[in-house]
Amino acid sequence: MSEIYKTKQGDTWDLIAYKFYKNIGGEYNLINLIDENSIYKDFIIFPAGINLNIPDLDIPLTGGLPPWEK
User: Fold this and answer.
1) Is pTM beyond 0.85 here?
2) Kindly report the CA angle at 22 between 35 and 5, in degrees rounded to 5?
3) Residue 30 near residue 69 (C-beta atoms within 8 A)
4) How far is CA 52 from CA 13, 47, 65, 66, 68, in A?
5) For residues 69 and 59, what is the distance between their CA atoms, to the nearest angstrom?
6) Please, are residues 31 and 67 in contact by the beta-carbon 8 Å criterion?
């Protein structure tokens, strides 16, 4: 279930991505936000009051220990 975020004056895509995905890649997930909210793709700095959909992302599970620890 996705979440709705109401922008604050000065928000940027990477700042919002970091806020919501800081434990799973942070700002590198901004493309997921842009894809979900493509009507706002031309915004660089947001004004206040725009509702953005924040999609849920799957957290990739790792396969245990890295090779050098096995």
Assistant:
1) no
2) 50
3) no
4) 10, 12, 37, 37, 42
5) 23
6) no
How confident is the model over 24-45, as pLDDT tens digits?
Answer: 777 777 888 999 999 999 999 9
Is residue 19 within 8 Å of 12, Cβ to Cβ?
no
Distance CA 47, CA 11 (A): 7
Compute the distance between CA of residue 50 and CA of residue 16 in angstroms, rounded to an integer: 12
At 49, give phi and psi (nearest 5°).
95, 10
Record the tokens describing residue 11, joined without a space. Answer: 């928000």
**Rounded Cα distance, 33 and 16, in Å:** 9
